[in-house]
Design brief:
29 helices, about 75% helix, about 0% strand, elongated
Amino acid sequence: MSAATVSYLHRVRELLAGTLSSVEAGGSLDLESLVSELASCLNSLSENVASSASDDEHENDVTLNARDDEENDVIQVLDEILKFLSSPQIDQDVIDALSFELPKVISKFAGLSSRCLELAEAIVDRFVVACNPRDMLPVLCEALDAARVSLSLSSSSTPLLHGLSKVFISVRRRHYEQLKVAVPIVLNVLKDMSLEPDMQPEGLFDKALGIAVSIKDVASKLEKEEGTRVRSLLGLYLMQITAVLSVSIKDKLDSGVPLVIQLKPLLAYCGLTHLGLITGNDPERLLSTISKDDDDDFLNSLHNINLGASLLFIWARISPEVADVANDVNELQSNPEKRWLAYGMLKHILAARDLLWEFKRHTIEVLLDIVKGVTPSQCNEEIDCSHYTTSIYAALQAVTLVIMYAPDADLRKKTFETLKRIISDIPVPQRFDVLKALVTNSQSSTMRGILLDQVKNNMSTSSLQATDCDAHVSELVELVLKPPHGGPPLFPDQCDEVLAALNLYRFALLNNSTGGNGFLSRKTLERDYKGWLLPLRTIVSGSIAENQRDKDHDQESSLEILCVLNRIESLLYWCIELVEERLKTH
């Protein structure tokens, strides 16, 4: 036994014995002081172990032996504490006092070895059995919250989560209120763990599932309203941990399939269906059940439930072992309103930054499937789409992000096809408004060009020609040719959107024969001619001349820019000629 062991072990024994003596003497203040000193002693031991581990950068026989000695030191100290807590002579006041401090510090040793983890869990379990569960719940929650700043959150949280799962079952009343306090803390811990570079999804899932099973056990014992609320909380928890688990997967998705399969009975117990998840109806239903009297802090802890609900559907598409969703896809194909709801849910995956690209690839494939066979003529314009427009717009924004940042051409191609099909699925009265909002809010010149092309392509359909979208063409073209922040468009940075804007303007001129008012009124044409087209001609000519001069320095780059500028110039002259012809007829 090392000198350090003798020192710490002897001091721990002294302090534990002192707690018994203080109670016998009726000194509550002495007991509190002794417990605090014991916690400080254990914290000191923890810091020494952590310091030694950080100093051992280069392992050799000496450092390995020293580490083994430290592990044995900790094991003996933990074993001594467990024996003391298990003694039949221990007073309840002593164990209650120790329960407020020891779980927090004991958990710090759990990552040292499997034996240390075993002893730490046994000590926490002893407190759970011996103390009032209503008192232990805030103690373990506080310890979990404190563990979030530790260097080994995964290991230090294990005995605490294990104990918490037992406390849930032991609580005798006000179950929902107790869970409402604990679940956000558990979710924060699990989220932090998912971001650890060495975190294994299996280990994370086991911890999350243990809590879920305990909540189910609680719900199964309750009746009426409280049982419904706990069951609803469990359903939302399952969605949230699905999001956390998916983020923790850093390699192959296949590794997550056996884990998600284990959620099937719990999802069924909560009355969740994959159609209800992908349309958002199930998350909304569960939230409405629990959120009547809940504060914002609790609801904010459930901020990823829509992401988790969408991911549960995607996991089912990844593997039929998770669920068979073929009938759900058929339902989405045939029901526009449910399909629009699905767009709004799947956007959460496309916009998520921490997920593997494979999740987004599967999501794009699902979107292509559910819009398969849907043509503009099939869009039932009698259905009011205005309620869904905001979420469809957000979904399309997420789709454009995938187009811009996808890691390979195949995914970009599929995503572009998805963009076109979703736009076509929007009823005509709302379609141009959505396109206009996408163009206006896009920060990418290339994406603005793509979206302006979609405006033109949709104007070519007979249904869209019947609307007054021509009246808004000038507004979109002005956004590009005369930016609201001032100044002309910048070349070559904005070549893509300028080319697309001129193409749209030319198309509208050629296909609008109404004359007289609005888009083709003399006032509007003169404004366009003098305000945009002639000034742009000067700018484009200057840019071409400048690039001609720079051709000798960087021939390949300048030639590429010149080709684009020449196309812009040609299209610009065409637009000028068309406007001049129109002005002659007015």
